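We modelled each protein-ligand pair independently. The example shown here corresponds to the zinc ion entry; the chain sequence is given first, followed by the ligand as SMILES.
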Amino acid sequence: MRTAISFIFYALALMGISSIGQAQDYDLVITGGRVMDPETMYDSVANVGIKNGRIAVITKEAIAGKDEIDANGLVVAPGFIDTHVHGVDPFLIKLRLRDGITTAMDLEAGAIRVGEWYEQKAETGWQVNYGTNASHPIARLLVHDPEVEVVGPVDFSTAPKYLNSAAADGVAGWSTTRDTVETMNAVSRLVDEDLRQGALGVSAMPAYMARGLTTYALFEAQRVGARYGRHTAVHTRFHLSSATPTEAAIGFDEVFANAAVLGAPLLVLHDNGYGWWEIEEKLQLARARGMNMWSEYFPWASGSTIISADFLRPEIWADTYGNKYEETIYDPQLDKFYTREEFVETSKAEPARNIVIIMKWREPWLPLWLSVPHMTVASDSISGHRPDGSLLPWGADYSEYAGHPRAAGNHARTLRLARENNVPLMFSISQLSYWAAKHLGDTGLQAMKDRGRLQVGKVADITIFDPETVTDNATYKAGEHGLPSTGIPYVIVNGTVVVRDSEVLEDVKPGQPIRFPVETEGRFEPVDVNRWINNNTISRRALPTVDDMGATKALEQEDPQKTDPQKEGAIRPKIQRDDLQRRTLIEYARAQSNPPGNAHTGLFFSEGPPMPHSLFCPIHRMLEPAITVRAEMAQK
Ligand SMILES: [Zn+2]
Ligand SMILES: [Zn+2]
């Protein structure tokens, strides 16, 4: 009955009938504010009525409700959506709320055991909407660091202890181990299971495993997500590099090409490093071709990550990229810059320690990011820890936060900079709310189709701010890292007021899961070498079985240093390699009479063993023994 009544009410509201606005008709009314919706471009002073967690009416007429917010002089905007919140802990969420966030998701690191992850959040309750990706890096930790005992679901608020113990044996397997077919399938199976459980997409962090992650394993990770039509969010392999041939945009190109051929959505994380202009241009061209691809930035000339990040080690950060530790690597807890020696020492002793990377060269780029279409604002904020390593509790003082100031001031800072740089307010609201919802909604995610818009029928996630005064207050100075933003007096999540008069209300937890429905069956398909051959070479009938041993032997025998081809008994294939270089394999096969065959059948090579497939098989690396960086390092 109740449902029927609210349905009728909802239908009336959809029809724009506002005269039903009698006293107490709404749970909450917001009166006299400048209501702005980036999708319809509605921009007018109006009253908003909220009922059962949704926007029931937007009207110029007087309305009343059980609760009222006077929004005179304030902007009433769709709640800010932050797709890059590593700090999935109550204190960090409190900070994000002061910055206007109504949905906080970690699409970069993601989580494992996603079903349990969502259950735990529902049990404890959450102040903002929550969601996560399937974590490819943590799935790799499960497979490549089997000595680490992992309990329950893991996200970035709990990952640091596991990262530390994974590195305790001297080798961070998740980062440095190259996959075999077997381990790659094991990782993909885990990622697939988390997608089945409703994860929003796949988290990929090739920069943190630049030496360990093969291009094919990354392609495969994206394909696991593509089977569900979901996005992959990527911290690209050479992010921050301006050093040819490891320019940042090359790391983008690999995931971009994968997404394009897979027809899969793509989110480029923090596209505020070198080469961002090339990446943004390509993303705009891709969108013009109907591809669902977008990016994020945080409006600072600095970043933050774990000290053991692969790209920060001296051979890369200093010797290749040309940076000085004394000018770029800042420890917010110690309030000092590191020397190269201190850096190396600390990254060994405490691999998961947080540092801030100061990158002054970004300063001239910053005003431009404010005005790039479909570039969304995301904080990349990291949990706050006490000096003993424990997480800050909800009630901790804001001055206790030691970390990058973006955790506190990111979104308000965007609004302040936009104001100072004459960026139209509606455009900024698109960057803060709408485009993240639009692109995620376009992957089929209903919870995001219903958010990021200020329209009748949509979920009442609403941020109310003063456009003239809204500002960040957090700085790099110790004690000021977590100073909350001001000028955002009200934040409403699913129709419930969580921030009132600039105070976060304790124990008010209206957050809802942002999640795909759980599916009964996964979509995992293991990579199989023989199937690859069947699918990608002309042989269709007599499917050959690759003989690894034969191939390896033949390779050895082919080595001119090991075998003199003129010697009696030497293996002399009928077809020499030169011929293969002149003619493509397909031309070659077509030229053959029956029966059909391909290079792998040995048909072309009637004398001796088959031509080693690894000479032309694009997945030959999978067939090699697992020679990995991990093994090389272990030998040292
Ligand atoms: Zn990142
Ligand atoms: Zn991040």
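Residues 84, 86, 108, 380 surround zinc ion (ligand 2) (CB under 6 Å).
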